[in-house]
Amino acid sequence: MGETMNDLIKDNIDLHASVKTRKEALYQMSTMLEEHGVVSDKDAFYQAILDREAIGPTGMENGIAIPHGESDVVNDAAIAVYKTTSDLEWDSLDGNPIKLIFLLVVPTKGRNVNHLKILSRLSAALTHKDVQQELLSEDNVTDFKKILEKAGGM
């Protein structure tokens, strides 16, 4: 049995994140990833995310953003999830604010094909409006992960 989306999320999830800006959310997520040993340097990883954000919008539609950072300070591929208690301004495709962030964490070295498959499955799952609505309305971590597993075919 290969890794699942939830194997990549582990404890890197907060469904009640109190942040006011995109940068604050991304910095707090970087800090959480450092605390969990996923990245070795939160500041370097945060800068990698900002560099990627500058290239093009990571805000999708319907309140969801999928930013990502690729860096050699990443110890393991991971997905961090934040659901915010207030709407965040984000450069999204539909121009609407964001409430749900899936941060893709990618190591520069030792990239794993399975991780890329999981990340593409996550992106595909998040294009479904019913999945988006379920995730946006779910506040329980266990149930949230079950929705993701089902949606991602994991």
From TrEMBL:
Among its keywords, does the record have Manganese?
A: no
Please indicate if the UniProt record lists Phosphoprotein as a keyword.
yes
| PTS EIIA type-2 domain boundaries | 6-151
Key words, A-Z = Phosphoprotein, Phosphotransferase system, Sugar transport, Transferase, Transport
Which terms in the GO cellular component ontology are assigned?
membrane
Any idea which GO molecular function terms this record carries?
protein-N(PI)-phosphohistidine-sugar phosphotransferase activity
Read off the InterPro entries from this record.
PTrfase/Anion_transptr (IPR016152), PTS_EIIA_type-2_dom (IPR002178), PTS_IIA_fruc (IPR004715), PTS_SugarTrans_NitroReg (IPR051541)
Q: Which GO terms describe its biological process?
A: phosphoenolpyruvate-dependent sugar phosphotransferase system
Coiled-coil residues? none
Which superkingdom?
A: Bacteria
Name the NCBIfam families on file: fruA
Q: What is this protein called?
A: PTS sugar transporter subunit IIA
